[in-house]
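Discussion board: Methods & Data

I've been asked by a reviewer to show the raw model output for two of the constructs in my manuscript, not just the figures. I'm not sure how much to include, so I'm pasting the format here to get opinions. Each protein appears as its amino acid sequence followed by a line of discrete structure tokens. Is this the kind of thing reviewers expect to see in a supplement, or should I convert it first? Here is construct A:
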Amino acid sequence: MVDAVTTASDATSRIGSSSALLSQNFETFLALLTAQLRNQDPLSPVDSNEFTGQLTQMAGVEQQLLTNDLLTAILQGQGGSDLTGATTYIGRDATAVWSAVKATDGEATWSYELAGDAASAKLQVFDASGRVVHEAAAPERGEGLHDFTWTGGQDGQVYTLKVVATNGAGEAVQSQVLVRGRVTGVEMYDGQPFLTIGTSILPLSSVIAVEEARAAVEQSETSPLSALNPMKLFS
């Protein structure tokens, strides 16, 4: 069983929040310092060392604001590079831990993986409102990866699949629902790249495997050069 790798996507918002707080503190500090200088006793002015220390603190706050602006710009730039990097998945076959698919021609297709042999395994299909629209015993209960196609869907509607499996002792068997297919597009939502795989649009972070497109592999295997012994190509 392989879990999807998740990444933090709120760094920019956190930096923005801290920048707003620093900016507010900076303005308050500057107002207090100005008031102090305006209302100081002419016969007992502010000590020069103390005044220098206050200016140093103010400069430090200003430097932190500039640093946060720079970090925000870097993160925004990385958002563009994330999209560019995600486009390299187009045309490849990918597997993602994802359970939502859109029905086409009345069919919705998933894969499910069992961590061990199951004595009992049930598949449940839910519609967009969370209502169970199909429930039946899983066609395959052995350890490993299995495909499942449900033919009772309405075109354009999104459905999700859930697997409930137990072993002979009645203990739960770990399972996960997968979407597998060719990556045909890439989009950005809230700064995060999403891939189009079959009829699903899913976050790149949910992808657990990518391989060369099967058609390209088969073409390579049937190439005249592939029939030659690679040890003799340069002999």
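Construct B, same format:
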Amino acid sequence: MTTVYDVPSDILIERLSDHLRKLPQISPPSWTLFVKTGAHTERPPQNKDWWYTRCASLLRKVYIKGPIGLTDLRSTYGGGTQVGSAAVHHKAAGGSAVRKALMQLEATGLVSKKHGQGRFVSSKGRSLLDRISTEIFKELIKANPSLERYIR
């Protein structure tokens, strides 16, 4: 069976964000139009639909690394920031964007929480990700049949 590990992440996140856009529980908060995603960024995201891309990316990240906590996810989505003339220091991403996205994914039933361990992908979320991965994989094989020999 094809999983998230077998397909390119950029294609998976794009397809998953299109799917999440159709769900009523996932909608960008009003502040997403003007907020930065963390202290390490200078400007807000240029893509107006960045919320769905972030939710899809979070779902994929929780699938791969779960159970994972909010602090680890903030660190993952963070980046370097210049502090005077010193070397670049790492800053965590904004916690509200990650937290609200996780709450919306929990409301859809795609992510669950274990007390003391963090969030993990539920069976509903795992089946959604595996189904989308299988569709992408079949399209990639159809476009380039020689790739099939490199698969497990």
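Answer (T.O., handling editor elsewhere):
This is acceptable in a supplement if you add a one-line summary per construct. For B, something like: Residues 123-143 form the longest helix (21 residues).
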